């Protein structure tokens, strides 16, 4: 192509990829859902019933860490709806605070 044709063609710039908060939502739902595993039938092995409780804090922290940048990016724009990121951060915060509150009451009552 000649330089004249290159000047006429518009540059094709790719839009930067912005996540929509889906990862944060999935991690938050998984973290909060892990609270229900001890209520599974007792016929299941203890590893299946209690191992997910050890993953609540890491999953909650990951949900908050993955959701906050999406919320910050969407804060100044009118066209984006950060609902999934907002719910993911909310569920992640709940997954972080619930075990800490339980531990506070457990140690305070003892």
Number of domains: 1
Q: What kind of sheet is the major sheet?
A: none
Strand content: under 5%
Number of strands: 0
Principal-axes geometry comes out as: elongated
Order of helices and strands: HHHHH
Transmembrane segments: 20-39, 51-69, 89-109
Region (Disordered): 1-22
Keywords: Membrane, Transmembrane, Transmembrane helix
Task: Kindly describe this structure.
This protein is mostly helical and about 110 residues long. The chain is built from five helices and no strands. α2 (about 20-35) packs antiparallel against α4, α2 (about 20-35) runs parallel beside α5 (about 85-110) and α4 (about 55-75) packs antiparallel against α5 (about 85-110). The longest helix is centred in the C-terminal third of the chain and has 27 residues, at about 85-110. It starts with a helix and ends with a helix. Keywords: Membrane, Transmembrane, Transmembrane helix.
Note the topology:
Layout: H1 3-8, H2 22-33, H3 46-50, H4 56-75, H5 83-109
Helix pairs in contact: 2-4, 2-5, 4-5
What distinguishing features does this structure have?
single chain; 110 residues; mainly alpha; 0% strand; elongated
What is the structure about, briefly put?
This protein is mainly α and 110 residues long.
């Amino acid at each position: 192509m000649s330089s004249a044709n290159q000047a006429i063609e518009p540059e094709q710039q790719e839009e930067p990829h912005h996540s929509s908060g889906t990862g944060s939502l999935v991690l938050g739902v998984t973290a909060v859902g892990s609270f229900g595993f001890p209520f599974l039938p007792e016929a299941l092995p203890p590893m299946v019933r209690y191992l997910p409780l050890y993953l609540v804090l890491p999953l909650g922290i990951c949900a908050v860490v993955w959701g906050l940048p999406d919320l910050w990016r969407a804060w100044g724009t009118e066209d984006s709806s950060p609902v999934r990121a907002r719910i993911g951060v909310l569920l992640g915060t709940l997954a972080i605070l619930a075990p800490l509150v339980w531990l506070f009451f457990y140690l305070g009552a003892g």
